Please model this.
Amino acid sequence: MQYKRPKKNINGILLLDKPHGFSSNQALQKVKWLLSATKAGHTGTLDPLATGLLPLCFGEATKFAHYLTDADKTYIATLKLGVTTNTGDAEGIVLSTQPVNVTPAQFETACRQFVGNISQTPPMYSALKFEGKAMYEYARAGVEVARQPRAVTIHQISVNAFQDDVAEITVTCSKGTYIRTLAEDIGNVLGCGAHLIGLRRTSTAHYHIDQSVTLAQFEAASVDERIALLMAPDSAVQHLPAFSLDNDSSFYLQQGQAVWRSGAVPSGLLRLYDEQQQFLGLGEQQSDGKIAPKRLIVSKPSSD
Model:
């Protein structure tokens, strides 16, 4: 009879430095297994080709994962000019090759054209769903599906290095931006084509790659050390103002009731804490002055 590992109610966020070759879900399932966690979710897909920051949410922290999925992100991307592929990256089949006669100044000018609010057409080789199936499934079957362009924002592109036909750039962008598509579009502007040969995510929201742990490091850690590496669930919503409630108000709020609070209350969503500074979840002031619960923590934000 096979031994079944007991599951644990783990609450927190792991900042994982995702390794090359792992899909986001594969990395998530590996860490979930190492923690024996009951509930988990990641915060935005990183291609298997890509490495870097992938926040993983467990237990009660999954309630706030969308704040990280929707947040701005920063990438270091390496482009190969003069070659296009059917996937837009190094894993694809070469479609064309062109000579590269591009100066560093021309490359920087091309990059600047994509800073701001732009329109991108999602690639066929993507996890976007169409009629219940991922786009890449259609692409692998040789079926082309019409995709609608969508608006994204490129906040900044910095050129880190440029030599011959290889360039490295740092891109800060909104959610939903495809760096593979950006690489192809830059190549099209230059007239020689391009594809992505390296991608590393260095930040998501206020989290940075320097705070992350590799999968190998996490696997080598003891059970207690793994738990200690998790950040608190409220770290996902640090951009929201904090507000403390007395213990009576905290009790009734946790029963789903709106509560009175004297004094000035910030508008919009609030991070709510009790007198012991335990995170209760999110609330919002109503028109009658009461604070209403919006998204509450069911259990204490620590592992059981």
Observations:
- The longest helix spans residues 24-35.
